[in-house]
Amino acid sequence: MKMSGSGVDTLNPFLAFFNGALDIFGSIYPTLNSLDENGKPGPYLAESWTPSEDKLTWTFKLRDGLKWSDGKPITAEDAAWTLNLIMTDAVAGTANGSLVSNFESVTATDATTLVIKTKAPQANVIYASIPISGIPIVPKHIWEPQAKNLKDVKNDTFPVVGYGPWTLTEYKPEQYAKFDANKDFILGRPGFDHMIQQSFKSTDAAVAALRSGQLDYINGVNPTQFKALQTDKSLLTVQEVGNGWTGVEVNHNARTRTGKKIGTGHPALGDPVLRRAISLATDRKTLVAKVLDGMGVAGSGYLPPAWPQWSWKPDAGQETPFDLAQAAKILDEAGYTKGDDGVRVDPKSGRPLELRLGIHSDDTADAGISTYLKGWLETIGVKLKIQTLSMSALNSDLAKGDWDLLMDGWTTGPDPTYLLGIQTCATLPKDDGTGGNTDAFFCDKAYDELFDKQLTTFDQNERAKIVAEMQAILYKADVDQIHFYANTLDVARTDTVSGLITGQPDAQGMYPAQTAFWSYLKAAPPAAKPAAASAEEGGGGTLWIAGGVLLLALVGGGIVLKRRSGAGDRE
């Protein structure tokens, strides 16, 4: 699949959370566990893992004999050092600190034994280090000398020392990433010897490259392009169940962990009445029909339908309807009177309800959504100023709190911990601007208590009930207003590549959410056998076709899930 529309924020795995960077890390760095095609943990560095009877100690037995790409042995000490750094260093914990928040200690008792002790029993320990949506294990001998200045480490010395199905040999920001296959990869040799992820400024340009044969695969075309490409018999077109959401974030109270207010958000957004009015004035079904051409599901809960065990909807009668009259009514009752220009005024600050809506400059879905939102909100007396921003500018504004409303999207893997974690108080930034990876400056004590509780609940039905309570809190807060879960639309050339799409479609023809890890690994020329379960059965140099290079599209656009993403990105 393509490097995601969110692009690459940094090649530093301790800091990155854009999908493009995470897809790269999933290809070049190992993890303790892999995920099978059904989202269940499997072996990777670890051959086995055993919890103690009290579920407070997990013992991982690591494979012996694996080597980093520079020839140094991979040992349990690399894993222990990586996890301990994230646990003890605020900068190192920027991206993945929430995944180890319940870890008490991590030790390597010998070269192949890793022991993780938790403060309380933790249900998802084996999901903490998985490809892409978990923690990548890095080589201690490379990273330890750089740990003191971690926030400045660019990790751009090539080839990057790692271990995975691929080795990153070259990277040019907003242009391309080049990879060589790891022919000795323990989970199977890649079907191509080389891979290039190429950047395009628009999906139109990427589609043209696909049609001409310059590209073999694009993950995430828009619905209009998808329908047009379905008529081309040389292309495979596939829809995946949505594994992420697209919506609008509301800057209700940007602040640091100590409570220091930051940013330039409109003060009226701190009023839940105004936030509810914005939600009431949003017709999610129309957005699915018009923006997605029906290729998606109207949004409500925080976790997407790709993982039905966590998916949640409000009870009957509790879902926020599309009701412009009701939105206007509650604003009237709260004292938001209209001026001569039809724009309401905040009764507390005296400021008119003129709000900035940040959208991504290269995301057609954002543009479509913003047009509808502008019309609906102006009907109820709220004026929107659309600000078209680059991915980097938008995220810079987010971290500083210099925004009112932002279009956003996140995706998630089968364990919801990370996505739930970015709504906890612990992800608020420090006063100096470091640490944390907050989504919308949300912080709620009851939510945090439930977050800790779900981590320690091993019965999945009971855990799902707790996760549902958390989603209900987020839904009521109206800080992240979920518009829809877009189907991911994949297109591949059948004459140059096979094996990219894994799993079986359901009765509606929808495929399960794809993972770049397995898709890239199993991709092979059509006449070749896809990568097998062991390195001995791989393809190697005999798989070179048209230069032996698998080209994938990197389409610019979409804000980020780990996660930040464009519509349809992230696993």
Automatic annotation (TrEMBL):
Q: What is its main location?
A: membrane
Q: Which SUPFAM superfamilies match?
A: Periplasmic binding protein-like II (SSF53850)
A Pfam family recorded for this sequence: SBP_bac_5
Keyword Amino-acid biosynthesis listed? The answer is no
Bilayer disposition of the protein: Lipid-anchor
Q: Which residues form the signal peptide?
A: none
Q: Transmembrane residues, as ranges?
A: 543-561
Q: Which domain of life is it from?
A: Bacteria
**Keywords for this entry?**
Membrane, Signal, Transmembrane, Transmembrane helix, Transport
- Family from the record: Belongs to the bacterial solute-binding protein 5 family.
Name of this chain's protein: Peptide/nickel transport system substrate-binding protein
